[in-house]
Amino acid sequence: MTETLHNVDQAEISKFEELSSRWWDPHSEFKALHDINPLRLDYIARAVGGLSGKTVLDVGCGGGILSEAMALQGAAVTGIDMGEMPLRIAELHTLESGAEVSYRLVPVEVLAAEQPGSFDLVTCMEMLEHVPSPASIVDACARLVRPGGTVVFSTLNRNPKAYLFAILGAEYLLNMLPKGTHDYARFIRPAELHAWIRPTDLCVTDMSGMTYNPLTQTYHLDPNDLSVNYLVTCKRDPDA
């Protein structure tokens, strides 16, 4: 039976544990993460008016690609994940890069109970579609950010186009991702994510899609196309 203690699907964790040694190889199974990271970083930085001096929590940080990039722009970053091996890889890579990131193996719900309202910015990228209860993750992120702070989510839409591009295309035709990386049933429609955000103190302020051109092999942000990958910016009520 799949372990779901602390809102963790151990089968999902195992997928990334097995590949963790290749996390920082830009030509490995994680090439797509390296390719989209500049776009993610720019989107996040614009959402908070610059990362320098911000306290940031990166939820589901994996091997630290985004965490390091934010730290190198001057943020004080904490990265959390439930995969032990990716966190070890992330810590080792800071010795090479010089980035200062604090990494912890801790469920986000536990950290929310420990440190509510502690961060200027919380990021949760490409994680919600890998957990048993994404609504619980959304709620924890809302509690971790300070009043007036920002939360940024990214995930995959659930529709035929997303299945075609993210699974058939990326995993089976173009070999951009390992086969079995994603479970289509866990993809999240924007309306579903909105429904999980609504009971919290967060308010959605921006949504943007991320598109891929297989001919030029480039990614772009497009606020008018949320059909496959999309990002969501939220602000916490300053009076919460």
From TrEMBL:
Reactions catalysed according to its record = a 3-(all-trans-polyprenyl)benzene-1,2-diol + S-adenosyl-L-methionine = a 2-methoxy-6-(all-trans-polyprenyl)phenol + S-adenosyl-L-homocysteine + H(+); a 3-demethylubiquinol + S-adenosyl-L-methionine = a ubiquinol + S-adenosyl-L-homocysteine + H(+)
Task: Return the EC number.
Answer: 2.1.1.222, 2.1.1.64
Superkingdom of source = Bacteria
Q: Which UniProt keywords apply?
A: Methyltransferase, S-adenosyl-L-methionine, Transferase, Ubiquinone biosynthesis
* Pfam families assigned: Methyltransf_23
Q: Which GO terms describe its molecular function?
A: 2-polyprenyl-6-hydroxyphenol methylase activity; 3-demethylubiquinol 3-O-methyltransferase activity; polyprenyldihydroxybenzoate methyltransferase activity
Q: Supply the Gene3D superfamilies for this chain.
A: Vaccinia Virus protein VP39 (3.40.50.150)
Q: Where does S-adenosyl-L-methionine bind?
A: 40, 60, 81, 125
Q: What pathway does the UniProt record associate with this protein?
A: Cofactor biosynthesis; ubiquinone biosynthesis
Which GO biological process annotations does it have? methylation
- Enumerate the HAMAP family for this protein: UbiG
Q: Which family does it belong to?
A: Belongs to the methyltransferase superfamily. UbiG/COQ3 family.
Q: Which NCBIfam families match?
A: UbiG
According to its UniProt entry, the function of this protein is described as: O-methyltransferase that catalyzes the 2 O-methylation steps in the ubiquinone biosynthetic pathway.
What is the name listed in the Swiss-Prot or TrEMBL entry for this protein? Ubiquinone biosynthesis O-methyltransferase
What lineage does the source organism belong to? Bacteria, Pseudomonadati, Pseudomonadota, Gammaproteobacteria, Chromatiales
